[in-house]
Amino acid sequence: MKNFKAFAVAAMLGLSQLATAQQTELSYYLPQSVQYNKAVPTPKEILGYNVGEWHVSHDQLAMYMRQMAQLSDRITITEYGRTHENRPLYLLTVTSPENHKNIEAIKANHKKLTNPSESGSLNIKDMPAVVWMGYSVHGNEPSGSNASLLSVYHLAAAQGPEIEKLLKETVILIDPSINPDGLNRFASWVNSHRSKNLITDSNSAEFEEAWPRGRTNHYWFDLNRDWLPLQHPESRGRLAKFHEWKPNVLTDHHEMGTNATFFFQPGIPSRNHPLSPENGFKLTQKIGTYHAKALDKIGSFYYTEESYDDFYYGKGSTYPDVNGSVGILFEQASSRGHAQESVNGVLSFPFTIRNQFTTTLSTLEAAQAMREELLAHQRDFYKEAYNDSKKAPVKAYVFGSEQDKARAYHLAEIIKQHQIEVYRPKESFKIGNTTYTPENAYIVPTEQPQYKLIEGMFEKRTKFQDSLFYDISAWTFPLAFDLDHEALSSKNFKSNQLGQKVENVTFPKGEIVGEKSNYAYVFEWHGYYAPRALNTLMERGIVTRVATDKFTTGNGKQFDYGTILIPVTGQPVNADELHKILQQVASANALQIHAMATGFTPQGIKLGSPMMTSLQQPKILMLIGDGVNSNDVGEAWHLLDERFNMKPTLVTTDRFNRIGLNKYNVIVMADGNYNNISKDRMRSWVQQGGTVVGMGDAVRWLADNGIGNITIKKSGNGTSPQKPYADMSNEAGAQVIGGAIFETKLDLTHPLAYGYTDAQMPIFRSNTLFLERSKSPYANPVMYTSNPLMAGYISKPNLQQVKNSAAVDVSAVGAGKVIAMPDNPNFRAFWYGTNKLFLNSIFFGQIISGSSARAEDAHN
C-alpha cells in the first residue's frame, strides 16, 4: 500500500469538520462483515463531513478522487476530458497492484474479445472481467456521485481475502461524475438552501431548484441521450475510454420521483431493441438476483422489468448492449435535497446513497461470480455479429453530399468515434440520380465486428413489437444529416469499391476560386457553415447581400438562390484586406468563395439587381427561464454559440416585459409556456419589423394570442367505446410521438429553404402539434408529404393528422414576420439536416416578402 497520511492530508487541505444536524456514520453504509484499513482516509477525513450530510460539489469530489489515487496502489486516475465549463472528467481504474503492473497488457488482451479473428484463442478462465461504474449523468440525481465516494473508499480500504480476490479477478472503472457541470449546479442549490435543522416539507425551496435545474450540462443537454450522437466533450471523452476498455458490465446510476422505491434492470422485455442479443437480457436478469438479495438484506424495496426500456441506443444503459456489454440502469427514489417527505415516510439523502452503494457492491459480486459468462458473452456477441454481417442483404452504406462536404464530414466523424471502419469510394459511382465520388462520399461496409451498431445507426425501422417508448423510436443518422445515402446490396457493392480507409476524418478544405477581385466575391449557401461565414463577415462590418434568384457566370457556373454577394467597394477594409479575410473565412468554413470580375452575368440576375437584397446582422434575443423547455432552448443556444459563433442574448421571460427591445431584430421562442410575457408588447415589436421564430408549444402561444395567422389542427372528439381501465395508460402512451422521422417537401425558391438542393427533407417530430395548411399558397415553404413516415413509430390517428400538414408557417404581422415551426430543427444537436431551416429563419426572415406570407386577420 502507498503511504497513507489521512489526518495530515486533511490538515493540509485546511478542511474542518462541519457541525450538522444529522450525523450519518460510515457504518450505516458499509458492509459489517468487512474490515477496513484504518490508515486509509475516510471521506470525512478528507472532505470534513460525513457522506450524505452535504451534497458533494464537483471540486470536492474531484479532490477526493485525486487524493485516493495518490494514496492507494489499487487506484490510478485519468482525466479523459473537460466539460464546457472546464471541469475535469475523471476515470479511476481500480484493481489489484499486480494487475496494475500489467494493466496495458490486460487491456489489450481484453479488447481481443471483440475481434472475431483473435478471440477464439483467448483463455477466458484467466482473464479479469471489466466493470464500469457510471454515476449521476443527471446532475440533480446526486446519490450516484455521492455513492462513488463510498465505492472508492471501500475498494481502497477493505481488507481480507474476498476483496483481494475481487481485485484480482476484475478491473473496475469508476466515473464518479458523468456530468460535473450539472452536479455542481445542483449541489450549490441544495446546500445553500439547507437548514441546520433539516426541513422535510416538500414545499421547501430546497426541493425546488431554479430553472434550468441541474439535470443537464452547461448547454442544458441531457447527456444520457448523447452516447450515440456524441455532440458534447463529456460524451466524446467517455466513449473513447469505453472503447479503450470494452467493459463487460456498465452501470448507470440515476434517480426518479420521491414517492418511488428503487428500480434495476432489465426493463420491460417487449421494449428491448431487436438488435440487442437475448442473452444480454438474460444476463441482466441473473445479475438482478444479486441486487435483490443485497437490497433485501438492508430492507429496501425495489422493482424490475417494469417502466423502463432498452430501445434507444443513445442511453448509457442501452449503448453497451449493442457493444457486447451488459448495461444496467439503476433508478433510486430521489430526496432532491437532504431529507424529504414521501408516501413511504421521510426519504433521507443518506438512504438514497446507501441503495446506490449497495447495488454497486452487488454488481461487483455478480460480475466476479459470472466473470466467465460475461467474457464469453462479449466474445460470442462479436462472433455472431460478424457472422450475421456476412449473411446480411446490406453489404455497405454510402453517404455524402456534393454541395456540402461539412455535413458528411461530421457524420463520418461520429461513426469513426464508435470504432466503425469508414472508407472513401475507390472511384466515382452512380446510384439512381446520385453520383458518389471519393471527394464527397464515405462508405461503411457492414462486414465488420461493429455490424450491430452500424445497423442501429442506419436502419429505418417502422414496425415494432411495442407501441410505447421511454425515449425516441428513430434516429437514422443519414436522415438526421439530410445526406444522400444508399444501402448497398451485393448487386451494387463489391469490396473492391472500397478506396482509402479513413484513419483520421479531416475537415474539408475551403478556398477562394480565382484571383483577387477588385469587384466582388460570392459564395453559395449550400455549405453547412455558410451561416457562420456570413456572421463572421457581419461581425467585421462587411456589407453583404443575398441573391433571391439564380444567376450564371461567364464560365457557365450557376449560382443558386441564397448566394451571398460581397462587394469590394464600399467596405470598411480595402481590397487586399478583404481578400485576406475571405481566405480565412473560406478555410474555416469549408467554402468555395468565388472571385467575380464583372457584375454582368450572362444568365439570371445581375449582381447589381434589386433582387440582390441587403442583409442586416441578426441581433438575437432568446427567451429562457421558467416555463421554457430547457432542452430545446439549450439546443438552439448551443448551435448558435458553440457551432456558429453567434451571440444570442439570453433573457428570462420575467424580464421580457421590462427591457428595451429595440436593439434586437430576432426573437427565438423555443418550446415552452409563455403566458407570463406581454402579448401586446410582442405584437408591437413584430409589427415594427422584427422576426419571431417560434418552435413547439411557442407556436401554440403565438396562435392563441393572435400573433400571426396560425391555425392548429384539432383532433377528433368523438365518443369511444368502453375499454378496460388497465389499458388506459398504455393506450394513451401509444398516441405519444416520442420521436420519429418524417418526409417533408421544400419550396426551394423560398428564403427559408435557401441552401437546400433537394426538395425532399427528413424532419424529426416529437409532439402532436399539427398545423393546418395556409390559404396562402406561399406561406408554407415546408409541408409534410402524403406518405410522410420514414422511420419510427406513430399511431394511425396521428399519421392521418400529420399527412399534408404544414411543417412551417410564415405570417406577416405589420412589417415583421412570425415563423412557426411545430418541430424542433435542432434536436439533440445531431439533426444537422434541419439546422439550416432554423438559421435561415434568423438570417433571412427579414427579407421574406410580406405578400408571400400569410397576413394576419384584420381583427388582429
Automatic annotation (TrEMBL):
CDD domains: M14-like (cd06238). GO terms for molecular function: metallocarboxypeptidase activity; zinc ion binding. The keyword Signal applies. Pfam families: Peptidase_M14. One of its GO terms (cellular component) is extracellular space. GO terms for biological process: proteolysis. Residues 1-21 form the signal peptide. SMART domains: Zn_pept (SM00631). Its cofactor is Zn(2+). Residues 54-461 form the Peptidase M14 domain. Keywords: Carboxypeptidase, Hydrolase, Metalloprotease, Protease, Signal, Zinc. The keyword Zinc applies. Belongs to the peptidase M14 family. This is Zinc carboxypeptidase. It comes from Pontibacter cellulosilyticus.
